[in-house]
Design brief:
The complex is a heterotrimer of chains A (about 300), B (about 280) and C (about 375).
Chain A lengths: L4 H29 L2 E2 L5 E2 L10 H10 L6 H32 L4 H9 L6 H11 L5 H8 L2 H7 L13 H26 L2 H9 L4 H12 L1 H16 L3 H6 L8 H11 L3 H35 L1
Helix pairs in contact in A: 1-14, 2-14, 3-8, 3-11, 8-11, 9-10, 11-14, 13-14
Chain B lengths: L2 H28 L15 H5 L9 H33 L6 H13 L2 H13 L9 H27 L2 H8 L4 H30 L2 H5 L9 H8 L6 H28 L5 H14 L1
Helix pairs in contact in B: 1-11, 3-6, 3-8, 4-6, 6-8, 6-12, 7-8, 8-11, 10-11
Chain C lengths: L5 E10 L2 E11 L4 E5 L6 H9 L6 E6 L2 E2 L10 E4 L11 H6 L9 H14 L15 H13 L5 E5 L7 H18 L2 E6 L2 H7 L2 E6 L2 E6 L1 H6 L4 H6 L4 E11 L2 E6 L2 E5 L9 E6 L5 E4 L7 E11 L3 E8 L4 E7 L12 E5 L6 E4 L17
Parallel strand pairs in C: 3-8, 3-9, 6-7, 7-8
Antiparallel strand pairs in C: 1-2, 1-4, 4-5, 9-10, 11-12, 11-14, 12-13, 14-20, 15-19, 16-17, 16-19, 17-18
The chains are: A mainly alpha (about 300), B mainly alpha (about 280), C alpha+beta (about 375).
């Protein structure tokens, strides 16, 4: 039917844009990572798959395995992300649960306040902490008054007295601060969707409030929770600005810093590209999982 | 259930304060009359425009960052919104081969880590698209690319609320597809497009990684980039002032989006409209 | 001058693996009120959408006044639709809604205004022109949708369960309105519903559909009094479906075995030995005092009596175990039945219809619980 052309015509520009600037951009990473360099170490992308040179990939791999140059950074990144995600869940879950179930007349206000961080630039939120954790900043003073800094020094979580100087704990807390809003909203959505009647039925059958929570709510919110975790873990792996702002020391460098260093900083763009590819492959697993979860969720919602 | 909620309530409110207070303080410091960025020092507008050399209004680096951010955001919103709206409309009718792939292509920018995306664009604009090169154009293209998906989501949500029936009714009454779009769909989509404009504006303003990678020098610096480069260097509260201005602008965009959406959907069934807006907010 | 004659030839429509419409052949006469009736999923709405042009058939043809419009897009077909959800344009006023399609009919502004006013008067909404759809009630919105379609003077109007979202009282009022308008304008109406009362009240002919096919097509009276299958019998009005064995033929009729009892049916289209159900409407069953003699009489016991106002439903279990519902008018002469009473159930031969047994239609026990509207 000739009248169908209009729909295709509408969609084509956008799709072409995405194909060119998104898909091809990614292909550029592949071509450079699998490419070569000129004598001046400028990358020469090998667009033709037949020309692909695995040299840089190999170098990247040897870098990230134990013993390689980037192994420490890789390991550190994983630890940071895992700890940050756990802490985010610990903070985010109760908040999401409260907002979904118990907020009562405060619900609207709370939701607005929970969404607000989205609209504040991430940089600005980190920047705020550089003000507070500086030498005479209010947070520093508060932590000192509560003797938390001496406590942390004793148990080895704080090295010296400068919170902004290469502290693992600061970077992790900054990651949590930065990303937990992104976890709370999907958690909220998942918890909100749970039919109150499931909980009532559990209570009816004799479960305590805590029991009903652990045995009914948590399992039912599983998909939403997992999706939320993936949603924050993925960007964390590519984060380089948080350590840069909050720590500024190579001691806390994350994988993003390493890639950043190679691509923007120095003469090894090809290695940087190769590392990015490795990171993408690593994250692809999670990306695919996330998309699957969303699709299944959508199908379920449509069928329900 | 009287005891339980109050523990949760306390946690929630403590979280909210922890989440927002640092930013409020940073904003407050922008109004300091002294040079401190860490302690309250009276009230003054000097960092905004009074100080003859260091205020946002007078410091060329800060000013150019502000101007550049706004320019970029304007360009991005004016490209991403029509492009995204058309895409959402076109994909609505798409069944069969390719629609799954197109959908994935649409969702990928939302889940791709910014760094990966930025590296890709950087390499692209320094090789195959070297004729464009780095700079404002590249920054705009990069930002449009990831903003597009958001606009599509917003418009799609609104299309779902509009439903298929009005479209079929219009065709049934004699309207050819072009008229269905022009007389029925677009007018009903205006609230979503307005929201899309403002959302892409806000996303562009807050973007850091993409604009940093695709920048070509001092005059392609955006506000987030400026904050990043100066934050650890012992800056004056002028930096706070700059950040505050940006914050106010993007929050204003959001608030405007809300009111515009409300005003434009005034004539419709209330619950339909509320559902649509809630979906919108949740998507983001 | 378009007549409004619709012909469907061998229409088939599949959605992935599901066959929604399985070969429909129908001829709708001009000016007819034609209804497609059936449960959800039977294909009636899909057929309507095929006629409107919102779906394209996989096989078959659709003709309007002899012209094949199977490949014509919906905006070029001279049929208009009234949707169940009304589908009014929320951003336009009522008057603009009604006048929407006139833009494609080359009429002057004055003429358009006149026609819009006329259409609004026809549905009795003269003063509502400047309101927005959101300000109208469900019934009013439905009338606007009707006016919007009628203003274009189509030869055929398609209505997709237009009264489905309205409450019972309003539905009855609008049924009368619709019928009045249809008779006044002489337009062909093709109506889709799952409500048998609606179908019986308003239609000239009804097609009972099931699983993508037309199970029976005919005038309401014919369908009600002479259903050709158990499904149709069950769908239209209450019925008792009694499993029987067909015995020896008896002229046009046959002997039916009901357990140890023998019944006679006046007409029996099925052959001897087949498994069948005997259908009899509750209002045609007679209750007589216990021990009455005569043919087609089976002893039974009253299990329950349901008082329904001007009549009562007496549920009796026959001696062989089959449950039977009997509709008994509440006039002064009637005997008061009580639970536990022994009675004699008379199933007059001329009211027994013999139909093929249908596993999907559970006999007797599932006799449609039609709650009187």
């Amino acid at each position: 039917m000739s009248s169908r052309w209009i729909w295709r015509a509408l969609a084509i520009p956008g799709l072409v844009w995405l194909a060119v600037f998104f898909v091809v951009a990614f292909y550029a990473i592949i071509s450079v990572g699998l490419g070569n360099v000129t004598t001046l170490y400028e990358p020469v992308p090998h667009w033709n798959p037949l020309d692909w040179n695995v040299g840089y990939i190999w170098q990247a791999i040897t870098n990230v395995v134990p013993g390689g140059d980037t192994w420490d950074t890789f390991l550190r990144t994983i630890i940071y992300v895992v700890v940050a995600v756990i802490l985010s869940l610990a903070i985010g879950y109760p908040v999401a649960w409260y907002a979904a179930r118990h907020a009562g007349r405060w619900r609207g206000l709370i939701l607005v306040l929970l969404v607000l961080p989205f609209w504040i630039s991430y940089l600005m939120r980190m920047f705020a902490w550089t003000n507070l954790l500086a030498e005479h900043g209010y947070a520093t003073r508060l932590l000192h008054t509560l003797s938390i800094d001496t406590l942390f020094q004793k148990i080895g979580l704080l090295d010296g007295s400068d919170w902004l100087g290469g502290q693992h704990i600061a970077v992790i807390m900054a990651l949590v601060y930065g990303y937990v809003p992104y976890l709370i909203l999907p958690l909220f959505a998942a918890l909100d969707r749970i039919d109150q009647r499931h909980i009532e039925a559990a209570r009816d059958l004799g479960a305590s409030p805590a029991g009903a929570f652990w045995r009914v709510v948590v399992p039912l919110s599983k998909t939403g929770t997992l999706a939320g975790i993936v949603l924050i873990a993925l960007p964390m792996f590519g984060d380089y600005y948080t350590p840069d702002l909050i720590s500024g020391s190579p001691k806390t460098a994350m994988l993003g810093n390493a890639i950043n260093g190679y691509v923007q900083g120095g003469p090894d763009k090809s290695l940087g590209a190769a590392l990015t590819l490795l990171l993408s492959a690593f994250l692809l697993i999670f990306m695919v999982y996330y998309l699957r979860v969303i699709r299944a969720d959508q199908r379920e919602a449509a069928g329900a | 259930m009287k005891r339980r909620p109050s523990f949760l309530a306390i946690t929630t409110w403590v979280y909210i304060v922890w989440s927002l207070l640092p930013v409020l303080l940073a904003i407050r410091f922008a109004f300091n009359s002294g040079r401190s960025r860490t302690s309250l020092q009276g009230w003054s507008l000097r960092w905004f425009w009074e100080d003859p050399t260091l205020s946002v209004f007078h410091d060329p680096t800060l000013q150019s960052a502000l101007v550049h951010s706004l320019e970029l955001a304007a360009i991005v919103m004016l490209i991403a919104t029509p492009l995204g709206t058309a895409l959402a409309l076109g994909m609505r009718r798409w069944r069969g081969r390719g629609s799954g792939t197109a959908n994935i292509m649409l969702l990928l920018p939302l889940v791709t880590p910014e760094l990966v995306f930025a590296v890709g664009m950087f390499l692209l604009f320094t090789s195959a698209f070297g004729f464009i090169g780095l700079g404002t154009t590249a920054q705009a293209i990069g930002q449009v690319t990831f903003t597009l998906s958001w606009v599509v989501l917003i418009v799609r949500g609104r299309l779902a609320t509009i439903g298929r029936d009005v479209e079929e009714a219009a065709a049934d009454l004699g309207a050819p597809p072009l008229h269905v779009v022009g007389r029925v769909l677009l007018p009903l989509l205006v609230p979503a497009m307005a929201a899309g404009l403002l959302v892409s504006f806000a996303l562009s303003i807050d973007d850091f990684v993409v604009s940093q990678y695709l920048a070509s020098g001092a005059d392609t610096t955006t506000v987030p980039m400026r904050i990043y480069s100066q934050a650890r260097g012992g800056p004056t509260p002028a930096l706070n002032a700059l950040a505050t201005i940006m914050l106010v602008v993007s929050l204003l965009a959001l608030v405007l989006a809300y009111f515009v959406f409300k005003a434009l959907t005034r004539g419709e069934q209330k619950e339909q409209r509320d559902t649509a807006f809630r979906q919108l907010a949740m998507e983001v | 001058m378009p007549q409004g004659d619709i012909e469907l030839v061998g229409l088939v429509k599949r959605f992935n693996d599901v066959v929604a419409v399985n070969g429909i052949d129908v001829n709708v006469a001009p000016g007819e009120f034609f209804t497609m009736l059936g449960p959800s999923g039977c294909g009636k709405t899909t057929t309507l959408r095929l006629i409107a042009g919102f779906e394209r058939p996989d096989e078959g043809k659709i003709l309007l006044d002899g012209v094949d419009m199977t490949r014509t897009p919906p905006h070029k077909r001279r049929v208009n639709t009234v949707f169940q959800s009304y589908a009014l344009f929320p951003h336009k006023s009522v008057a603009d809604n009604v006048g929407f399609g006139l833009r494609y009919h080359s009429v002057t502004k004055a003429e358009a205004k006149r026609r819009v006013d006329e259409a609004m008067a026809l549905v009795r909404l003269e003063d509502y022109g400047q309101r927005r759809p959101a300000q109208l009630s469900g019934g009013q919105q439905q009338r606007v949708a009707l006016a919007r379609a009628l203003v274009l003077e189509p030869p055929v109007l398609l209505l997709d369960e237009p009264l489905g979202a309205l409450d019972a009282r309003l539905r009855l009022d609008l049924q009368v309105e619709l019928k009045r308008i249809q008779e006044q304008l002489g337009i062909t109406f093709i109506y889709v519903t799952h409500d048998q009362d609606e179908a019986l009240t308003m239609s000239d002919r009804v097609a009972v559909m099931r699983g993508g096919n037309i199970e029976q097509l005919g005038e309401p009276r014919e369908l009600y009094e002479a259903p050709s299958t158990a499904f149709v019998a069950n769908f239209l009005g209450a019925s008792n479906l009694v499993p029987v064995n067909i015995g020896a033929a008896d002229g046009d009729g046959a002997q039916l075995g009901l357990g140890s009892f023998v019944l006679r049916a006046e007409r029996c289209p099925l052959s001897s030995g087949a498994d069948a159900v005997a259908m009899i409407r509750p209002e045609n069953v007679r209750l007589e005092p216990q021990g009455s003699g005569g043919e087609n009489r089976v002893p039974g016991m009253v299990e329950e009596v349901v008082y329904l106002g001007f009549h009562q439903e007496v549920r009796v279990r026959l001696a062989n175990g089959t449950p039977i519902k009997v509709d008994v008018p509440n006039d002064d002469e009637q005997v008061e039945y009580e639970q536990g009473d022994a009675v004699c159930v008379h199933l007059p031969p001329r009211h027994l219809r013999v139909l093929a047994a249908d596993a999907a239609v559970a006999p007797a026990a599932a006799a449609a619980e039609q709650v009187p509207a």
